[in-house]
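My current task is to audit a protein record that another person submitted. Alongside the sequence sits a line of tokens, each denoting a local backbone shape. Where you disagree with what is written, explain briefly why. This is what I was given:
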Amino acid sequence: MSLPPCDGNCQYGDAGMGPYDGCKCGCVKCPFYIACETWQPPWVLRCYEGMCSSCAMGPPTIVTKSEMCKVCKARKDTFIKPAGWRGKALPCVDCYRTEVRPFYQ
């Protein structure tokens, strides 16, 4: 049985596409999901060398180290280095999602 085609408006798709339309498609996570939180149809990822369209513009680097986040001042284990980031201090995943990513989209 093949899965129905998906235009991204599924239970895992972008919130900007509107409410879940009931499609039981085969959307998959972007390999950089920890940073972008994106699910897209497999054909989109194939178009962008395995990434979502957002990460294809400049994939982030996932950095695993245990230290204090300079933004929220909490000890974290995973940090995100956005493409083109020139700062020395990296935001943790939570700060990236709330403070940095909105400026990249």
Remarks:
- Residues 93-104 form the longest helix (12 residues).
